[in-house]
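INTERNAL TRANSFER SHEET
From: sequence group
To: structure group
Subject: Amino acid ABC transporter substrate-binding protein, PAAT family

Please process the attached sequence and return the structure record in the designated field. Keep the field labels unchanged so the import script can parse them.
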Amino acid sequence: MYDCLAPTGEIRIAVAVGPTKSALWTRIPDGGTDPEGVTVDLARRIGEITGRPVRLVQLESSARIIETANDDIWDLSFTPVDADRRAVVDFGPAYHIGESSYLVRAASPYVKAGDLHRDGTVILGVAGTATIRSAERASAGAQVVAIPTLSEAIARFQTGEGDALALGRLGLDELVVTLPDTRITEGNFHVAETAVAVQKGRPDQLAAAKTLVDAMKTDGTVAASFHRHGMANAVIPTG
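Return from structure group:
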């Protein structure tokens, strides 16, 4: 049943590569060439289950994954779910439920995520992501600035171009350790599932992807991966 996932002879799995790790993001370690992270672990396990070779397609963000859904460069991927994306790809089972909040400077007056949703604040985020779209909806008067890549967004936050950086909580948990004099705002402005995705209108691929994710949730692959990458508190949906 897995031949449909490998029309070129290998399963091409798109992963988002950036400077932090989360349920979505992977990171290339210092001195390395290959990304590490939860979705990489899932991709490798998919190769083991299916017996097909797997090739990672490294892209800059989940937005870029969605943008290339019809470009025939990947067969399967993983991204956060929202209504805009459902119009472009078909989603299978979720393997994570997470929230998004903000990274701010330690001396910032903003304590709760909602404190930033006011006139005069500047919120930075990655263009085209579910997180930045939610930040735009949540923040009535704030200026939300969409930046092409997470690396650039972090750099611009560090140079003082924004009051906050919007990102998923797992990614923030790692960033706050590596960026001095920062903290995470309390609460969240966005809660979403992250799930397996395939090109729209391909029921055989969707069924195969569902079988794979269900198997990896059942056999402990998903939980073990989150633990391995320091995200033991990640919420894995049971359904």
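Handover comment: The first strand starts at residue 11 and ends at 17. The CA atoms of residues 134 and 190 lie 6 Å apart.
Transfer complete.
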